[in-house]
Batch of 3 targets.
Target 1
Amino acid sequence: MDRVAPTTAAAMADHWNSRAWRFDGAASHRRDADAWRTVFNAALGGAPLDVLDLGCGTGACALLAGSLGHRVTAVDGSAEMLAHAKAAATEANLSIEFINATMDEAALPTASAEIVTLRNVLWTLENPSAALTLARKLLRPGGILLVSDGLWFRHRVNNSRDVFGAHLPFYNGVPEDDARGLLAGAGFSAVESWRDLIPGNLYGAAYDDPEKPIAFFILTAISPE
Ligand SMILES: C[S@@+](CC[C@H](N)C(=O)[O-])C[C@H]1O[C@@H](n2cnc3c(N)ncnc32)[C@H](O)[C@@H]1O
C-alpha cells in the first residue's frame, strides 16, 4: 500500500506541534462542537460504534464521538496536538484511546472500525488517496467514512510552502469534486453530503482573503462489503 506521507511526516508533526497552543481557538476546531454534533448525529448512526479519528489534532471529532457514546481511537503524528486532546478528554471525563503515530506508522487492526473520520486532514497529506485506501482497510465492510475539508488558502505566504507545501497536492485546500473523485478511486460508494446541516460560513474568510468565505464540504461514503 502506498504511504500517506512518505517524506513530509516529520515536518508536518513539527508544524502542528508549533501550532497546537492556538489551534482550539480557531474556527470550528473544538469551538463549534454543537454544529458538528448535528452532523455526527445525522450522518453516523446510533452509538455505540467503533470510531477511528485519523489526524485527530486537538481531539474535536474524537471528543464529539466519545460524548455521543461511541468507542473512540484517535491517531495523530503531533505529540503537542495530542497533549491538548488528552487533556480535553480527561476534563470531559471521556475514555478515548490516543495513539501518537503517523498514519503510516500506527499499527491499527484491519477491519476494526465502523466509522473513520478524517476532518481537515486530507489537505495536509502528500498522498490523500493513500489515506482513503488506509481508511477502507481499517473499516469493516459497510463501514462509514466521514471526510471533510475546505478551500483554506488562495496564495499562502509563509514558509510552510517551502517546508512541505510543494509536496501536498491540496496544499491550498481540497475542492469537493476532488474529494468525491478520491472516494470513488478508493472504492467508496453511496457518497452523501451533510454540508446543509451547517448553514452559513462556519470557517469565516479564507486566510489570505478577508472577502472570500471558505468553502467546505462534509461527505460520508460507505466502504465496500
Ligand atoms: C488541520 S489539523 C485537523 C485536526 C482535527 N482533525 C480537526 O478537525 O480539528 C490536521 C491534523 O492532522 C495531523 N496529521 C497530518 N498528517 C498526518 C499523518 N500522516 N499521520 C497522522 N496525523 C497527521 C496533524 O498533526 C494535525 O493534527
Target 2
Amino acid sequence: MTDRVDSSADSPTRLGIVGAGAAGAGAAYALRDADVDVTIVEKSGGVCGRAATRRKNGCRYDHGANYVTEADERTAALLPELGTEGLVEIDEPVWTFDAAGEITAGDRESTKWTWTEGITQLAKRLLAATDATVHRRTRTAEVAREEGKRVDDDAASWTLTDTDGDRYGPFDALLLTPPAPQTADLLRATDWDDDRLDSLVDAVSAVPYRTVRTLVFHYPFRDSYPWYGLVNPDKEHAIGWLSREECKEGHVPDGESLLIVQMGPEWSTTHYDDPLSDVEPGVADRVATLLDDDRYADPDWVDDQGWRYALPDASLDADAVRLTEDAGLYVAGDWVAGEGRVPRALWNGYDVGERIGSDTP
Ligand SMILES: Cc1cc2nc3c(=O)[nH]c(=O)nc-3n(C[C@H](O)[C@H](O)[C@H](O)COP(=O)(O)OP(=O)(O)OC[C@H]3O[C@@H](n4cnc5c(N)ncnc54)[C@H](O)[C@@H]3O)c2cc1C
C-alpha cells in the first residue's frame, strides 16, 4: 500500500476529481488558470469515459459516443480553441428508421464532430491545457472526510482510497463524476457522518440509466449511402442506432467499411452478458435486413462493448445538486445535467469547476 497523502501541503487549493470523462476533464479545464492543484483518479487506461475510441486491424472507431455536436455557442467556440488539426466534421446526415425498418430521410443533427484520432481527443486536449495530474487504471473504492488535516487551519479535507489500498489527498474539494449508480456506490462507501450525505445518496441512487450494448461489424468492401447514421426514435426496433465509421476521416481504410450498431435498451439489457459469438449472427442478420443487402449478414471481423450505464433517463433532483458543496463535496456529469450528451457533461463539469474555483479559499 502506498500513501499518497500529503498532509504538509497548504496552498494552493487542492481538488480531487474521480473520473476523467467529459465532466471531469471539463472541470479541470475550467481551472486551468486558477490557483488550484488538480488530481484526477480514473479507473480506465484512457481518458474521456463513455466518449471512447478503440483501434483494431487498422481501423479506429468511436464505439461509445459517436460525435460531439456544437448545438450551443460555448461548444462551437471551444472545439477550434482546442486545435483544428485532426478535427473532423461528419458531413453526411442522420436519418431515421421505424419498428418495421423503414428508413426516412432528414437530418437529426446540425453539426457532428470527432477527430481523426478519435473522440477521446476531446478529454485529451482539454487535459493537455491543464497541469492536472491524472492517475489512470486507478479505481476509487472509498472516500473519507477527515477533520483538521490542513496545517494552516482546521478545515476538513477529503481523501480517496483505491482498490489497491493506495490513498490520494488530502483535498480541500472533491468532485465525483462517474455515472449516477457508480457515484451512489462511492457515496455509500464514504466515511462522513452527516445527514447531507444520506440525502445525497438517496437522490443520486434515484437517477435511472439505460443500458446499451454496442456491436462493431467490419466488412472488406465499402458502399456509398447518402447518410452517416440511422436512428430509431420510436425505440421499437431491436437496433437503436447504426452508423458508418468510414464517414469519419482517418478512421477506416479505403475500400473497407465499419458499422457501429448500438442495440436498443431492451435488447441490450436482455443480452448484456451473452457471448458475442452467440448474439453476432442475429444482429448481423438484422443489419442486413435493415440495409436490404445480404452481404451485411457476414462481417469479416466483429467487436463489442457493453455500456451498463449508457445514458441517464432523468436528472439529479435540483435540490440535491449543491447539497454538499459547502462541505467541499461536488458532483457533475451527464446525469446532473439531465441529458446523455458529451457537451452537457462537459459544461456541467466546467461550471462546477468554476464554482470550485470561486468557492474555495
Ligand atoms: C453507446 C453510447 C452512445 C452515445 N452517443 C452519444 C453521441 O453520439 N453524442 C453525445 O454527445 N453523447 C453520446 N453519448 C453520451 C455521452 O457519452 C455521455 O453523456 C458523456 O460521455 C458522459 O460524460 P461524463 O463525464 O458525465 O461520464 P463518463 O464519460 O462516464 O465519465 C466518468 C468517468 O469516471 C470513471 N470512473 C467511474 N467509476 C470510477 C471509480 N470508482 N474510480 C475512478 N474512475 C471512475 C469512468 O471510467 C469514466 O471515465 C453516448 C453514450 C453511449 C454509452
Target 3
Amino acid sequence: MHELAVSKSILSLVLKNAEQKKANKVLAIYLAIGEMRKLEQDWLQRYFDYISKGTIAEGVHIEVKKVPVVFECKLCGKEFSVNLHEDKKLLCPFCDGFEYTLLSGRELLVEKMEVR
Ligand SMILES: [Zn+2]
C-alpha cells in the first residue's frame, strides 16, 4: 500500500477514536510498524503534517516503533530474526533450512494516542 493511503487510513481511525473520547486535540500517535513495511518516521511525519491540516490532529507528533522481522523455521521450529539490510540468502541460522513462516514484521498498528 502507498504511504499516503496508509497515513490517511491511520488518521481516519485516530480521528474516529478521538471523537469517541470527545477529545479536542490529538497530540501524538504512537505506531508499531514492522520493518518489512519500510515506512520511515520522517516520511510519515511529513504525510501527517499534510493530511491533518484542518482536523483536530493538525500538528500531531508521530512516533514510530519498529517491530523486527522474525521468522519461525519449519524444519527445526526455532525462531530467528533477520537484518533486511543485508542482501544475502535467507536461511535458518540453526539448520540452514529455507522454509519458514513470518511471525512478525508486517505490523501496522496504532499502539496508543495522546489526546486532550
Ligand atoms: Zn531451522
